[in-house]
């Protein structure tokens, strides 16, 4: 079998999630490429060696530019913080590598445009890790919508709630806490959490025409881990926005890291003319479905346990009734990508698809500043 040699940059949360996917994909999916975990890259040599040994990478690099230039790497996987995506992706594209990049694509649309240009000029396969599309219950929702079962869509509602930054003593910056540093992250919950909700929404319900947003930074100053000084906080701690989709439907989106009691409550609900669907990350293998066309006496919300072999991806795993989890969405994404590579076709979300999400985020943040409805830039 032809090999696909992976070079991964960053060995944090996503470095682990992706490594797990690379290790398992050939065990469960019939693919024409064998993934080889060729090199892991991180700036701390001892730590990256430890990581490579644990996950089975053949070698390590401490300078990502060296990794990108290596002849024995086919695919560069970017799992570094958001401010690194631009340079890494452009260098990888110039070196002719396939690229998988973590979300959000970039810190803003301008950076994203440069990245799209680079991969399209180089003609390299590319994809962004908006992994929630590939949770089987969410993929099933897409199938039901595409079959027209919901009819005309009236409403889209999404939330992503967490509670881990409430303490004013939590510093910003540096390992793990780069998400609180606007220079590194680009934005707060908008780029980190709402970007996921927006990507799923664009996929399920089409483009967003305009938005009206409000944001808040509840803790205005935090100590910065890298400078040791108390610095202004530049991220949005919470964001809520209204949106109007191109198909006329109305939407509300909300995200915060100040919803005490919620850890990663990503929920979505879509109401159509005939039917509604609802999904909750905390119960990720279930899809709630209500169909008004059911016989009246039996009409009600169905809780579909998305674990049967005719459900998306589920024939690749265990027997009907046995659930899979968060990490499997990454395995599915690698499998789909490799299938696309074998067939010579792009697999969504590409960098270009992810640029649309970036434009929505830009419009949301602009609207929060101007206090007005803002149009979303169209991807050309
Ligand atoms: N798809 C998802 O659900 C999801 C979830 C979490 C994070 N993310 C995204 O993944 C990316 C990484 O987030 P994370 O949570 O894994 O962060 P993390 O802080 O856990 O890990 C980041 C890694 O990048 C490394 N790194 C930073 N700068 C580097 C450089 N110049 N060269 C080499 N390595 C460098 C760090 O040492 C660390 O190993 C971010 O873009 C984030 O938005 C996506």
Describe the structure.
This protein is 34% helix and 25% strand. Helix 4 packs parallel to helix 5 and helix 5 packs antiparallel against helix 10. The protein is of the alpha/beta class. The chain starts with a strand and ends in a 5-residue tail after the last strand. It binds nicotinamide-adenine-dinucleotide (NAD). Nicotinamide-adenine-dinucleotide binds next to helix 1 and helix 4.
Q: What is the name of the CATH architecture of the largest domain?
A: 2-Layer Sandwich
Ligand roster: nicotinamide-adenine-dinucleotide
Low-confidence stretches at least 5 residues in length (pLDDT < 50)?
Answer: none
Structural class designation: alpha/beta
Task: Report the major sheet.
Answer: 9 strands, mixed
In order across it, which strands form the biggest sheet? 16-15-14-13-7-12-11-8-17
The residue-averaged pLDDT reads 98
Q: What is the CATH class designation of the largest domain?
A: Alpha Beta
Whole-number total of structural domains = 2
